[in-house]
UniProtKB/TrEMBL annotation:
Signal peptide: none
Organism per entry: marine sediment metagenome
Taxonomic lineage from the root: unclassified sequences, metagenomes, ecological metagenomes
All residue ranges annotated as the Glycosyltransferase 2-like domain in the record: 50-131
InterPro entries given in the database record: Glyco_trans_2-like (IPR001173), Nucleotide-diphossugar_trans (IPR029044)
The protein's name: Glycosyltransferase 2-like domain-containing protein
Length: 344
């Protein structure tokens, strides 16, 4: 049943299969409305149709969901037969249509456990002065069994600003990072902002399945390669080809932000049911999607040398490694045939 709080969920999506139906199903019970903006920005046209739409059937899946799985008529689909200028413009398209008391931004590969969403709603209900919430996220890698961690994430990038108080005069002004201001022009995070660490202490986190399927990673990295992001953009397709689409080459560049040390961890916690169902369907052949063979990651995690160096990187995550040691760690390679780490 819908909550008594009016929550508008806002999504932007390009090539969102197979996530779309599972993400929408996970949000639906808690939604006052769900507004989905489909299509590419100008920087993502390399993975879009000529008129700026998804190429994998995302728009058709959204229309199917609205026709077959939206009995309350709360799903809105916003699209255009030309590319959007920016991600901010796309997000503003759902924000301008929002009629809820809260605006909750969600990427199509982001999920929450239902009990965590209920906990968030209870917190909002108990304290109506709350103006914003952020969430610590866990990045899952090629399945349900692995997460990636690293310096980039530990130094702030694992916190996503996602939920904002909404009402007359509120405006969505920036996507990177998500920023909403109230009618007086004050950033919602300048008010009663509940941070990601505070929510994590209550067990509430965002489950981010951003690096799950080969097609997803290929499209994501092709888009990122066209952004004005310096060395990261220049090398992200090489990272995809050598660390995800083929057996792992760089064991300490597990995250797609490959310019900082990162590593694999095993995950044995509980997943949101919708995400687990998606992966069960993927492995059962219900979905038209390829799953990655993770035998290389299993072998890598079995190495004592990997676990020891991972411990060192964790210990040094708040410091700076000496330049020579940093370069050595970043250039370590995994020799699958010998099941050992090698330098260059």
């Amino acid at each position: 049943m819908p909550t008594d709080l009016k929550i508008t969920f806002g999504l932007i999506v390009l090539n969102g299969l197979p996530f779309v139906r599972y993400c929408l199903r996970s949000l639906y019970p808690f939604a006052h409305e769900i507004i989905v903006v489909e299509g590419a920005t100008t920087s993502a046209m390399s993975v879009a149709s000529d008129d700026g739409h998804s190429t994998d059937g995302t728009l058709a899946e959204l229309e199917r969901f609205k026709a077959e799985e939206d009995p309350r008529g709360i799903v809105q689909i916003v699209t255009s037969d030309r590319p959007w200028e920016t991600l901010t413009q796309q997000s503003q398209a759902y924000a301008e249509r929002a009629t809820g008391e809260y605006l909750w931004q969600v990427d199509v590969d982001e999920f929450y456990r239902p009990d965590d969403m209920q906990r968030v709603i209870a917190i909002l209900r108990d304290d109506p002065t709350i103006t914003a919430m952020s969430f610590e996220q866990m990045t899952f890698w090629a399945g349900l069994d692995y997460v990636v961690d690293g310096w980039y994430l530990r130094r702030g990038a694992n916190v996503y600003h996602r939920l904002f108080k909404w009402g007359p005069g509120a405006r969505y002004i920036e996507h990177e990072p998500p920023t909403v201001v109230d009618a007086a022009g004050v950033d919602c995070r300048a008010g009663n902002w509940i941070g990601g660490r505070a929510l994590a202490r209550r067990g509430v986190r965002l489950y981010h399945y951003s690096l799950m399927f080969p097609r997803q990673v290929r499209n994501k990295c092709a888009h990122y390669a066209n952004r004005d992001w310096g060395d990261y953009a220049a090398g992200v397709m090489a990272w995809a080809e050598r660390n995800f689409l083929s057996p792992v080459t760089w064991p300490f560049r597990a995250h797609n932000v490959h310019v900082h040390p990162s590593w694999f961890e095993r995950f044995d916690g509980q997943h949101p049911p919708a995400a687990k169902q998606m992966m069960d369907d993927a492995h059962a052949g219900v979905l038209d999607v390829d799953c990655r063979d993770n035998s290389d990651v299993e072998a890598l995690l079995s190495l004592k040398s990997y676990r020891r160096l991972r411990w060192l990187l964790k210990a040094m995550s708040e410091c700076h490694l000496p330049g020579r040691l940093y370069r050595w760690m970043m250039h370590l390679r995994y020799d699958r045939s010998a099941n050992r780490l090698r330098w260059r």
